[in-house]
Specification:
The protein has 13 helices and 10 strands. It is α/β, with parallel strands linked by helices. The radius of gyration is 19 Å and the shape is globular.
Length: 342
């Protein structure tokens, strides 16, 4: 298949959700031209420490996307990819750091540019596609809540401490003002399919959408927009929100409703739901009365936390191959927008 015949698929988000989608779509690289657009607001964990020390764009979401798209067709390539994802579990200064994060920071030091460093890392990893930071401006995420509070910093929004976590976010923005990466604008305008999610609604997905120019690029695009519904609510962000509220909030920031909403219909593991309930997080309810696509999108393997990882991670996740199969099967379908809820 020629480059011209390939479907241009853009995935917007960051973190584990985007990594999952890209990992699945990578298997279709002969028929799909893949681009990942990732947020640059991460301020927690290894990424936050490196951001504070070096002042570069945060590298965590970039690293996750690069690793997802890295070639792993043989033992050597697979080892390089694993190395990029390795997290140190020592008790020293390097504890909790991810090798890929350190590698990207070192490349930026050597090459003098985050953009050039990402391109160089892409060549080392033989990445099947492109990874683009949504902006080149160094920004912080700012959330305004219904009770009048303002919280600055992605990590503080993502893992609220001592806050009333049921108070909804009313407005999200970044500071300072930031403009869209021109390469991102081009990718969005030329895409056949734009995928939002899964991932934390405010800190992974909408963190991209609040960059000046993003909304305009979406409205200028003829792409089919897909939203992959989260499996669980996120305390401090989406407490009490069902699929409808997630979709409405996305539409508010991008100026368009998604054409397709993908919802998992496989039962969630009861033992894990109990653990989530202790954290006041619950399944996202299917309360949307427009057309959706429902499929078994659930990953079945156990999620094992990496040694040295201090951040909270999801235990129930989507399956990358199930997601990719649905996305690719429907990508060129004329019936895409007319699938009925089962």
């Amino acid at each position: 298949m020629s480059v011209i015949d390939k479907k241009r698929i853009v995935v917007v988000g960051g973190g584990t959700g985007t990594h999952t989608v890209l990992t699945g779509l990578k298997q279709y690289r002969k028929s799909a031209d893949l681009t990942a657009i990732v947020a640059v607001t991460d301020s927690g964990g290894s990424t936050g420490r490196l951001r504070d020390e070096f002042g570069y764009l945060p590298v965590g979401d970039v690293r996750m996307a690069l690793a997802a798209l890295a070639k792993d067709d043989n033992e050597h390539e697979s080892l390089i990819r694993k190395l990029f994802l390795h997290r140190f579990a020592s008790n020293g200064d390097v504890a909790g750091h991810n090798f890929g994060n350190l590698f990207l920071v070192a490349l930026t030091d050597i090459l003098g540019s985050e953009e050039v460093a990402i391109e160089a890392a892409s060549r080392v990893l033989q990445v099947c596609g492109r990874v683009l930071p949504v902006t080149h401006t160094k920004v912080n995420l700012v959330a305004h809540y219904a009770d009048g509070r303002e919280v600055v910093g992605e990590h503080e929004i993502d893992e609220p401490n001592g806050m009333e976590t049921h108070i909804p976010i009313t407005t999200l923005r970044v500071t300072p003002h930031a403009t869209l990466n021109p390469a991102v604008r081009e990718s969005l305008r030329n895409a056949d399919l734009i995928v939002f999610g899964p991932g934390d609604l405010y800190t992974s997905i909408l963190a991209n959408c609040v960059i000046d120019g993003f909304k305009d690029a979406i409205q200028e695009s003829n792409a089919t927009l897909v939203y992959i519904s989260n499996l669980m609510t996120k305390v401090g962000q989406t407490t009490g929100m069902g699929v409808r509220e997630h979709v409405d909030e996305l539409a508010r920031y991008i100026g368009r409703s998604p054409d397709v909403v993908l919802v998992n219909d496989a039962p969630l593991p009861e033992e894990l739901l109990i653990r989530y309930a202790h954290e006041l997080e619950f399944p996202v309810l299917m309360n949307l009365d427009i057309d959706v696509l429902t499929h078994d999108l659930l990953a079945t393997e156990e999620i094992i936390r990496s040694a040295g990882d201090v951040l909270k991670r999801s235990l129930i996740r989507h399956d990358p191959h199930k997601l990719a199969q649905v996305l690719m099967a429907q990508c060129s379908s004329k019936q895409w927008r007319h699938q009925k809820k089962r």
